[in-house]
């Protein structure tokens, strides 16, 4: 073919040259055509109208570009729509601890206590491990809760109130303690750790017990109170005293419950009572002459003979006359003091049982019936001498059976016998009145002074701030150092029992409940019950559920890419164990915490103004049964004046601003910060200060709420959790948003380019392709014919 093309071209060239010579004088057109040669030849019409490859390839290219744009857009949509679902799945997997094999189980709570725990905590672990037979997992949430501000009372009564009303007054105005007032001290800052123990995962719930430990933070305390320290000395109302008198029905019963042990210690330490045996020198307590003046001070205070001498009452004179001033012999004194050292005979044994107040009322009813000669069905083995003295002691007449019963207490045997059956009835009632005043007045005063006041256990006590917060030990004998019992501190109350066993149990839902992350750690039961304690309710028969959120709430699971989560709900319902009820929080605004937007919910003031189910009125929630003493919880910084002036009248309620809130990270629904401010208020009832005292008390705000302490607890998410969240959530959501926007823009640009190529193809080039053989032959033939 190439050869033929070359031959044809040579022929055309030769012909052209010949014509040029033959027509040298031809016109200009002929010369121009001859010069153009083969390039001046036009293609045939069919060649122009034939389909060419270049326009068709442009459309195919445009379609290909469009397909690429669609693929890029699909990738963008996948990143924009599926990445948020992936993030939510990762959040759910990360936060939903449903078994001990979960990868974050050890960060949810450590498997064992760390070495820095206190020795008492380690002892508790040993006790628990010995008494458990099943496999038990004990976990610890380290540093998950901090006590941000902890304030206590000051010398003179309680704390957290900046005013100077007189709370307690001693009758003796010259005393250094004559004016007890209230002022604010602190704050004292503690780091608080919660420990989860006995963790058990069931099908859709988790059960565990919780205890708390605290470490004082001197540096953080000094940031707010430069002069405060852990061992500051404070004078406060004694919560342990209030709890004891509440449990025993008043301070009279409380002091009587201490009488036997106090008297036994006095007699033993002075050699009058050894190994449950009265010594012959017991006669020192029965003197009725000047020899009583030689008695040691403590023995003189418990001597029946000495008391008769100095009482100057008419019945004392009658007894001396009846006895011809003869002292009491050892047999009579063994009968008298033997009854006082016998809790069953005295009737104080019942004061150590849980239902002491109810049993005491039964015994008082029995004694009243005996005095009136009425057969009573209320008698029980716990009733004793003090009940008869309380009901019959100052009567001039009573049923004959009274003399018989009283005599049986003082004369149980021939060697221990203060014989009151052989005396006449008038003399018996003289003895009865004297013994009543000696036991229920004089010995109660002595016991109250030596056992409570002088040993710093009375209504008002002085102690270190650390003892008040963390608790302390009481000793039965300060010289021997024998531990009587442990008193819980304000921070450890209800979280650690006296035997160091955990006190609070929880049953909570897991994410398996309803297959929703919103149910994570939602309260199902508290302390073994699904319902609030009846004693906290207005109607004890009502059943109020304890269900509420704790550390998580509704998550923003359908969050669109490149958009912030809106609040999942206007209200949150969080369960507070301090109040044993669920409180309502309302959404207010969006805050930035560690560079992440969180939704802030504030505690509603209505929670403390009124509640239809709980005993809440005018800022106070009654928690007497839960606290174990006459007490309330309120919003913080409420003074005794505000509490007493309202008097439960809702129209007079003027509560300070409530500074309790929670910050919720919306994507995960997790509470990143929780701040709760509450105030503990105590009340002093008339029966709490009814016992005879050498220095009587006047209570200015009797039966009113007196502030004791207010706390500011702050739960902050650990910084490592924030970093993990930024890595898992923020980074992926940014990639998702960036990918959606960036790839969408790229796909649109590519699609526009493809559209331009498709609808506006390029023009055909002016230089055509080399002709085929047939075309060359036809051109040559036409050229010859034209010539």
Automatic annotation (TrEMBL):
Q: Does the keyword Lipid metabolism apply?
A: no
Record-level Gene Ontology MF annotations:
scavenger receptor activity
Alphabetized, the UniProt keywords read:
Glycoprotein, Membrane, Transmembrane, Transmembrane helix
InterPro entries per UniProt: CD36_fam
Its GO CC terms?
cytoplasm; membrane
Q: Which Pfam families does the entry mention? A: CD36 (PF01130)
Q: Where in the cell is it found?
A: Membrane
- Which residue spans adopt a coiled-coil conformation according to this UniProt entry? none
Q: Where are the transmembrane segments?
A: 60-81, 740-760
Q: What is its main location?
A: membrane
Family under the similarity heading: Belongs to the CD36 family.
Protein name, as recorded: Uncharacterized protein
In its UniProt entry, the species of origin is given as: Pomacea canaliculata
């Amino acid at each position: 073919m190439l050869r033929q093309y070359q031959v044809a071209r040579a022929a055309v060239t030769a012909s052209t040259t010949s014509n040029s010579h033959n027509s040298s004088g031809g016109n200009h057109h002929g010369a121009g055509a001859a010069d153009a040669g083969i390039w001046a030849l036009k293609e045939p019409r069919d060649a122009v109208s034939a389909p060419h490859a270049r326009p068709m390839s442009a459309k195919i290219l445009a379609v290909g570009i469009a397909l690429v744009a669609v693929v890029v857009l699909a990738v963008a949509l996948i990143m924009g729509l599926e990445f948020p679902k992936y993030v939510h799945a990762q959040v759910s997997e990360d936060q939903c601890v449903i078994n001990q094999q979960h990868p974050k189980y050890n960060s949810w709570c450590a498997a064992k206590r760390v070495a820095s725990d206190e020795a008492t905590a380690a002892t508790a672990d040993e006790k628990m491990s010995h008494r458990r037979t099943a496999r038990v997992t004990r976990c610890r949430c380290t540093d998950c809760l901090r006590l941000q501000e902890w304030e206590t009372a000051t010398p003179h009564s309680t704390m957290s109130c900046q005013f100077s009303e007189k709370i307690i007054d001693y009758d003796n105005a010259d005393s250094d303690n004559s004016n007890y007032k209230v002022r604010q001290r602190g704050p004292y800052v503690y780091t608080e750790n919660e420990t989860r123990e006995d963790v058990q995962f069931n099908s859709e719930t988790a059960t565990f017990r919780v205890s708390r430990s605290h470490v004082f933070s001197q540096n953080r305390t000094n940031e707010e109170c430069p002069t405060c320290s852990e061992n500051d000395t404070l004078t406060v109302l004694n919560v342990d005293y209030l709890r004891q008198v509440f449990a025993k029905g008043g301070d009279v019963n409380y002091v009587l419950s201490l009488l036997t042990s106090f008297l036994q210690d006095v007699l033993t330490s002075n050699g009058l009572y050894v190994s449950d045996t009265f010594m012959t020198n017991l006669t020192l307590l029965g003197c009725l002459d000047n020899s009583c003046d030689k008695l040691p001070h403590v023995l003189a205070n418990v001597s029946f003979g000495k008391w008769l001498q100095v009482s100057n009452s008419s019945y004392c004179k009658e007894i001396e006359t009846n006895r011809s001033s003869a002292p009491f012999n050892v047999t009579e004194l063994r009968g008298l003091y033997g009854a006082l050292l016998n809790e069953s005979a005295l009737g104080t044994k019942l004061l150590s049982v849980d239902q002491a107040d109810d049993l005491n009322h039964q015994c008082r009813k029995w004694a009243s019936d005996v005095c009136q000669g009425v057969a009573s069905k209320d008698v029980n083995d716990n009733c004793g001498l003090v009940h008869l003295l309380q009901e019959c002691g100052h009567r001039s007449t009573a049923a004959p059976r009274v003399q018989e019963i009283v005599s049986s207490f003082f004369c149980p045997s021939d060697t221990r016998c203060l014989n009151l059956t052989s005396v006449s009835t008038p003399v018996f009632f003289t003895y009865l009145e004297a013994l009543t005043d000696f036991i229920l007045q004089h010995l109660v005063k002595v016991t109250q002074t030596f056992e409570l006041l002088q040993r710093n256990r009375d209504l008002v006590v002085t102690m270190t701030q650390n003892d008040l917060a963390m608790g302390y030990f009481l000793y039965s004998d300060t010289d021997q150092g024998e531990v009587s019992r442990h008193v819980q501190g304000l921070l450890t109350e209800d979280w650690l029992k006296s035997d160091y066993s955990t006190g609070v149990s929880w049953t909570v839902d897991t994410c398996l409940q309803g297959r929703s992350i919103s149910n994570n750690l939602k309260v199902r039961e508290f302390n073994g019950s699904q319902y609030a304690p009846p004693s906290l309710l207005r109607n004890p028969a009502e059943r109020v559920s304890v269900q509420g959120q704790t550390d998580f709430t509704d998550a923003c699971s359908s969050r669109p890419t490149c958009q912030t989560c809106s609040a999942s709900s206007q209200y949150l319902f969080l369960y507070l164990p301090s109040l044993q009820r669920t409180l309502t929080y309302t959404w207010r605004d969006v805050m930035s915490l560690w560079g992440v937007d969180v939704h802030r919910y504030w505690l509603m003031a209505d929670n403390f103004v009124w509640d239809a189910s709980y005993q809440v009125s005018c800022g106070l929630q009654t928690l007497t049964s839960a606290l174990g003493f006459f007490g309330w919880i309120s919003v913080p910084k409420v003074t005794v004046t505000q509490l007493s002036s309202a008097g439960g009248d809702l129209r007079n309620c003027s509560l300070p601003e409530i500074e309790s809130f929670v910050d919720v990270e919306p994507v995960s629904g997790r509470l990143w910060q929780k701040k709760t401010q509450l105030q503990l208020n105590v009340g002093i009832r008339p029966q709490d200060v009814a016992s005879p005292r050498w220095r009587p008390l006047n209570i200015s705000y009797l039966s009113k709420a007196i502030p004791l302490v207010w706390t500011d607890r702050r739960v902050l998410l650990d910084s490592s959790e924030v970093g993990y969240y930024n890595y898992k959530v923020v980074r992926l959501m940014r990639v998702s948003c960036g990918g959606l926007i960036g790839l969408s823009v790229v796909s649109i640009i590519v699609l526009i380019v493809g559209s331009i190529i498709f609808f506006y193809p390029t023009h055909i080039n002016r230089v055509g392709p080399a002709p085929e053989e047939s075309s060359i032959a036809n051109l040559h033939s036409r050229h010859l014919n034209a010539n």
